[in-house]
């Protein structure tokens, strides 16, 4: 088994499965903004990050700007094959990517020994994707908002990339359900390792929504892993993790 994972903060990862390099949901440069403007919410990186070299695939879970970040996507080689949710596929198409593989939940992309199956993710408002990645004996499940597809059958994975904290907004309720979903993920996948995702990195957020968010849970709460042998890692940005 040979999985190497590098965290870029927020939802961004570089995953190396064998010799295949997959960049996931990158936000590497520029600000993060949502319509109607910065007053609602704005994210700023402490420093810009170089686009990783020798990428084999770009994998996008959602079409929202914190997953399909236009300023970052514009800096990536447009000939790299993209595997993406339907909403994210429309974003990369407008930016000029030429090898786009849109996946609906339940559909699978296969090339050589790599298989990427889309699962149902969050509705924000479109139904977006999680993914199960298989390559030889290596396996990964990733979904950035803690929304679990009930159609997934129990199976083992080596690595689980998921939030472990719940985030809520007044009236809207939980929009990230990491703490809530974790017991289900542990039972379903029996992962060897969990890398906590979605909320990390050297990032500053401002705006009205940032002040309304309620948080429940902690990456340091080892009771989340009760009665399991799973290892939980709170990743540092730019550090390489070998699974």
Shape: globular
Helical content stands at 10-25%
Quote the beta fraction: 35-45%
Instruction: Tell me the major beta sheet.
Output: 7 strands, mixed
Report, as a whole number of angstroms, the end-to-end distance: 8 Å
The overall pLDDT, averaged over residues, is 93
Class by alpha and beta content: mainly beta
Q: How many beta-strand segments?
A: 20
Count of separate DSSP helical elements: 4
Describe the structure.
The chain is mostly beta strands. 13% of the residues lie in helices and 38% in strands. It has a seven-stranded mixed beta sheet, covered by helices on one side. The protein has a seven-stranded mixed beta sheet with strand order 9-10-11-12-13-16-19, with helices on one face. The longest helix is centred in the last third of the chain and has 12 residues, at 178-189. The mean pLDDT is 93.
In summary, what is this structure?
The chain is mainly β and 243 residues long. 13% of the residues lie in helices and 38% in strands.
């Amino acid at each position: 088994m040979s999985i190497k994972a590098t965290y870029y903060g927020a939802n961004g990862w570089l995953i190396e499965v064998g010799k295949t390099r997959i960049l996931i949901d990158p936000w590497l440069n520029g600000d993060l903004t949502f319509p109607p403007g910065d007053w609602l919410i704005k994210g700023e990186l402490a420093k810009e990050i170089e686009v990783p070299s020798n990428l084999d695939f770009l994998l996008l879970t959602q079409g929202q700007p914190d997953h399909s970040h236009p300023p970052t996507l514009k800096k990536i080689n447009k000939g790299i094959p993209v595997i993406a949710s339907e909403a994210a596929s429309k974003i990369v198409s407008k930016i000029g990517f030429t090898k786009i593989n849109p996946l609906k939940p339940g559909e699978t992309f296969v090339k050589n020994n790599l298989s990427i199956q889309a699962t149902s993710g969050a509705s924000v408002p479109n139904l977006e994707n999680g993914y199960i990645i298989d390559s030889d004996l290596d396996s990964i499940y990733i979904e950035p908002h803690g929304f679990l597809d009930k159609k997934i059958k129990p199976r083992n994975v080596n690595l689980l990339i998921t939030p472990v904290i719940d985030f809520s907004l007044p009236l809207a309720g939980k929009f990230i359900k990491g703490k809530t979903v974790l017991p289900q993920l542990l039972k379903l996948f029996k992962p060897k390792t969990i890398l906590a995702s979605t909320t990390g990195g050297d990032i500053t957020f401002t705006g009205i929504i940032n002040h309304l968010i309620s948080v429940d849970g902690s990456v340091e709460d080892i009771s989340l892993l009760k009665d399991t042998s799973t290892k939980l890692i709170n990743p540092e940005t730019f550090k390489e993790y070998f699974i």
